[in-house]
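Discussion board: Methods & Data

I've been asked by a reviewer to show the raw model output for two of the constructs in my manuscript, not just the figures. I'm not sure how much to include, so I'm pasting the format here to get opinions. Each protein appears as its amino acid sequence followed by a line of discrete structure tokens. Is this the kind of thing reviewers expect to see in a supplement, or should I convert it first? Here is construct A:
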Amino acid sequence: MTAFFALVTSLLWGLADFGGGLLTRRSPALTVVVFSQGIAAAVLGVIVLATGGWSEAGPRLWFAFAAGLVGPAAMLCFYKALALGPMGVVSPLASLAVAVPLAVGLALGERPGLLQTAGIAVAVTGVVLAGGPRLGGAAVQRRTIGLTLAAALGFGTVLALIAEASTTVTGLFLALFVQRVTNVVAGGAALYVLSRRGGAVLPEGGFPWGTLPALAFVGLADVAANGTYSVAVQHGPVTVAAVLASLYPVVTALAARGFLSERLRTVQAAGAGLALVGTLLLATG
């Protein structure tokens, strides 16, 4: 059961990343974040009411609130990176989010094993190579790499916070609801400030009503992935769940290759692959 739910997680995250990246090539990234998460919050609100999740309210929800503040910033960085650079590079680098729980463990007195140490070295090498050293052709912009790493840090922080926000399935629904509502409020406030300063909050043609199904899919797939990952962890070893769930960049890369015909330079593909290998070593160490 752990393997099944973890693989479903990787599929959902991978497709959500692909969809979010496509949407931000047509609409402002912050708008995509706010509306996709708003739809997810509405659906989660119904689920919480139906399952009696309000009974799980308590001090742990502060972790969900904090995750809701960090999440929009991470998604904004990630979607901007996906809009600027190849998905086959950006998505594997973002999977370095798994390093954050390891850092939390170090702060609590844990020490990395041999595999984790190797994973750090491999991942750093992958980050450098994925930037595309100028051996011919265009390199991936430094801004794209920076945004991706910032997103990875944010995603890892969100995962660590959500893990502390609930201990039951109904509690998880409530935690995810609080997180998404906070996402929408924080992101909506940022959109308001941006519009007051004359920034673009909608495409030139106005609100893209035709993208509502895609926005809904991105928001709900992201929420569902969080849920299936939590179920996977509850039913088996965290290491197994983390390894299988962290395969989502492969889904994004395959989708980009299949639908967008993206092709990477050899050095970029090698760097993205090393980053993914480093992530797996970190998760299994």
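Construct B, same format:
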Amino acid sequence: MIVTTADKPVTLPAEWRDFLALTKPRVMSLVVFTGLCGMLAAPVPIHPVLGFTAILCIALGAGAAGALNMWYEADLDAQMKRTAKRPLPSGRMDRQSALHFGVGLAVFSVVLMELAINAVAATILAISILFYVLVYTVWLKRRTPQNIVIGGAAGAFPPLIGWAAATGSVAWLPFLMFTLVFLWTPPHFWALALFVKTDYANAGVPMLPVVAGERTTRHQIGLYTIPMAAAAVAPWPLGLTGALYGVASIAATAVFALFAAQVSLRTTQADDRMRPEKRLFAYSILYLFFMFGALVADHWLA
């Protein structure tokens, strides 16, 4: 933080709240939850202390990725209304502090996962951090409207990490959960992009609504919902889950598909407040929490 005295500007250390903000705690909550559910749905129980450690590592890894994302995109954040108050663009923290914080968290989370849990979980955690930072943030974000499509894999790793923490391996069920999150990401973020399109346009970020227009974006939301729905329901007919998850997944996905269809098939009016898009975006977050909660409930109650 920089304050001005009568003599000269004085640089003060950032507050703990600023470092917490760097980790994107709202995004982290969903990452931690899906990772926890992947662990709890695994066929092998894990000691509570080790389980807590694994989830801590996932949280720290996600926080590291968020901090490095904010470090690299400080210039973009300064140009967008919804991100301008973040620690770096608002001047409450210098970029070097954010970089050191992000790298430190990343290294610590992977090393701790390796030493306390197992190499498989640590490797996937490292891949997820590097994918989010290097592939999505550095390579894709500013270059292609497919940034969310490919970059969505970064947020899909936690179920695999949680499962691997418990079992030391991966299997078809966590892979399908990875696929669900991967295919869920484009409709989720494109719904957001539709009603914050001006922000992305001002910052020069080639999000799909900016590059291809709203009509194409709406159609893509509808198209991506189809394979997402298949991935969501697939564990039941494949015999990987029971009827509890099957029924819950069909019901929740049907609502998602309804909201997605409302967005996909409508036209935008001049005075439109984007209510269907905001409804889809809000529901999509609850949807993922519900789906993974149903997965754990099915495992423990079946």
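Answer (T.O., handling editor elsewhere):
This is acceptable in a supplement if you add a one-line summary per construct. For B, something like: The radius of gyration is 20 Å.
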